[in-house]
Amino acid sequence: MWLPGQGRSRFGFTVNYQFDWEPILESRALILEGLATTILLSLCALALASIIGVIVGTLASSRHKGARLGAAAIVELTRNIPLLIHMYIWYVGLAFLRLPPFLCGVLGLSVYSGAYVAEIVRAGIASVPDGQNKAALATGLTRLQALLLVVYPQALRIVAPSLGNVFSQLIKDSSLASAIAVMELTYQASAIEGQTFRTFEIYITICALYLLLVSAVTLALRLLAGPRDDAPAQELASA
Amino acid sequence: MSKPIIILEDVSKSYGAVPVLRGCSTAVSRGEVVVVCGPSGSGKSTLLQCINGLEPYQSGSILVEGVEVGAKKTDLPRLRTRIGMVFQHFELYPHMTALENVVLAQVHALRRSRKEAEARGRRLLDRVGLASKADTRPGKLSGGQQQRIAIARALALDPQAMLLDEPTSALDPEMITEVLDVLIELADEGMTMMVVTHEMGFARRVADRVIFMDQGEIIEDSPTKTFFSAPVSQRAKLFLSKILSH
Amino acid sequence: MPDVISQNMPFLLQGLVTTLRIAALTAIGGTLLGLAVGVAVQLRLPFVAGLLRVYIEFVRGTPLLVMLFICYFALPALMGLHVTAEQATVLGFVLFIAAYIAEDVRSGLRSIGSGLVRAALATGLTRLQSLRLIIVPLALRRIIPALFNQYVRLLKFTSVASVIGVQEFTGSAMLVNARVFAPVSILIFVALTYLILCLLLSSVGRVLHAYLAA
């Protein structure tokens, strides 16, 4: 009830909207179901996008020109195609595979976001001084060990904020899965809106829920990255 | 002096069209201390990095304990555990404590147990006078302390030889001595070392031989005494006069 | 080119024109609004700055699709207006992208050292003059890459408008698919078209940046 129920607004049109939160409260089961699906969808896509991103990003930092070019091609190819098209590719284009909508959503989201993660991983690796890698190799570690034990941990600290941005973006992007019939938060909101016509209330509600999820991920990443007292380079251009 | 640990034969390397090493040949025997000097850009660091396979070379041969470094089938990680390396900018891992820095390769490259590695790590930190800093991260330590820890990290692998790439040139003047003292002690114990440095006092004191490089070539390779008293080449004379004038 | 594409080319091109129109309109609107909001927030204009911060945070926490739903369903319901899907799309995209551009503008402004501001003031320029003549032009040059990033995002976003029934490129393509069912060729065609457009747009950004930086 934070707006007048009726009356003439200064802008010259009639504000004729009665706020009523009751139907929203009654639909809480559907909303929670949608929220759960959104969380699951995001978590699956987040994990897969990270795997894709680390592999492609590492290839992009390779000494081999072929690997670098290949990685760059993958990144450009995937991130310059709209996410919705990514989802349609799995859901409509590869319909003969009969993948469930949820899986199509996960795949579309992960491949698309994976390109962004790859760019961040590449930048992160580049920001770790080459001497660190050399020092690790000089003590007899293998290339893989040097990456896992010395380069990645330092890169993660540096790119944690950018990674947080991409992950928040992923959660918000997951709303597009509603277009391929994944019954996540936005999908349920549309359904509830169709039944109750409480347009404003329902969208404000899910906005708040998305905001909550995004804040949770940002916080989690900040904790994961740990104290940054020893990070040499605290800033990195966002990818 | 026994048989050489490190043998270089006609090693050449270039970045594209730019030659960085030209026909370098030398050998380092067990227990020998060799100082490598020369103007910046003369290829000293590259030479060192080629010896443990951190930089590839295009022709010639480098043998470490009889193993060809550049050969495809060479197990570089194993070879590198036999040689300790110390860098100009320390290159301690900033996300680990001093002790973890010293322990890492012992556990992951040499497969020592963590307990054994930590015990040895603490002994070495004690030896470089930094036992109390075991749980401190490098960012909180002075340059001299960091370099001493880097030396401990290299020693932890029980290397047969040490390569030191300008170990004191990134240090503030008052910290140079503490690092050189550690190196002098190492030399006195008979550690085989190849040291790129401009510290001519140190060279005079511990080096058996001095190698002088310029423009990717080994110009002079003589016993220390000869090098300082009667350098053969004009370029070495000029270099010495510049570096010793102040 | 497969027959399904060539036979439906006029219809698809019509969709593409709509896509480009929406992208162009929202890029212009979003840049102007974003610039104004960014400068206002950075200048800490009393009252307004706080309100705009709320706007920025709200939009940056909201999925684009939800933003479109709000502009298409919620706002008109609230105000008793009728808007077409395309109008709602343009409004939604402008409000959406402006929040991101405002943040880019802010960091662009922040990246200009206080030394330069002092130098400008020292030559006798007023605060507003130094802002208009020195700071904003410099900041703009610096944020060109970020700006073009947003334009590329915007171009990709336009496909989302199909969800609320705008017949832009993606919407038209899916309509064609519903009629002739040739999803593979249609989606490949659509994906490649977006790919080429996005790559073109970002290279324009790169060229412009290089040109201005020189």
Layout of secondary structure:
The complex is a heterotrimer of chains A (239), B (246) and C (214).
Chain A: E1 7-8, E2 14-15, H1 22-26, H2 28-60, H3 65-79, H4 83-93, H5 101-127, H6 130-138, H7 143-173, H8 185-196, H9 199-225
Antiparallel strand pairs in A: 1-2
Chain B: E1 4-15, E2 18-29, E3 33-37, H1 44-51, E4 59-64, E5 67-68, H2 76-81, E6 83-86, H3 98-108, H4 114-127, H5 143-155, E7 161-165, H6 173-188, E8 192-196, H7 200-206, E9 209-214, E10 217-223, H8 224-229, H9 234-244
Parallel strand pairs in B: 3-8, 3-9, 6-7, 7-8
Antiparallel strand pairs in B: 1-2, 1-4, 4-5, 9-10
Helix pairs in contact in B: 3-4, 3-5, 4-5, 5-6
Chain C: H1 3-7, H2 9-42, H3 48-60, H4 64-79, H5 85-110, H6 114-122, H7 127-157, H8 169-180, H9 183-213
Describe this structure as you would to a colleague.
The complex is a heterotrimer of chains A (239), B (246) and C (214). Chain A has a single domain, classed as Orthogonal Bundle (MetI-like fold), CATH 1.10.3720.10. Helix content of chain A is 71%, strand content 2%. Chain A contains nine helices and two strands. Chain A is elongated, with a radius of gyration of 22 Å. The model of chain A is unreliable at 1-12 and 229-239 (pLDDT under 50). Chain B has a single domain, classed as Rossmann fold. Chain B is built from nine helices and ten strands. Chain C has one domain (21-213): MetI-like fold (Orthogonal Bundle), CATH 1.10.3720.10. The mean pLDDT of chain C is 90. With 214 residues, chain C is mainly alpha-helical. The N and C termini of chain C lie far apart (42 Å).
Most residues in contact: chain pair: A-C, 43 and 38 residues
Radius of gyration of chain C, in Å, reads: 20 Å
SS-based class of chain C: mainly alpha
Mean pLDDT of chain B: 93
Helix segment count of chain C?
9
Largest sheet of chain C: none
Binned strand content of chain C: under 5%
CATH superfamily of chain C: MetI-like
CATH architecture of chain B: 3-Layer(aba) Sandwich
Order of helices and strands of chain C: HHHHHHHHH
Question: What portion of residues of chain C is helical?
Answer: over 70%
